[in-house]
Amino acid sequence: MGDTAQERESLIARYEAGPARLRAALERVPAEARKWRPGPEKWSAHEVVVHCGDSETNAAARIRYLLAEKEPVIQGYDQAHWAKALDYHAAPLEPALRAVEAARANTAALLRRLPESAWAARGTHTETDGPYTAGDWLRVYAEHLEKHSRQIERNLEAWKARA
Question: pTM of the full predicted structure?
Answer without folding.
Answer: 0.95
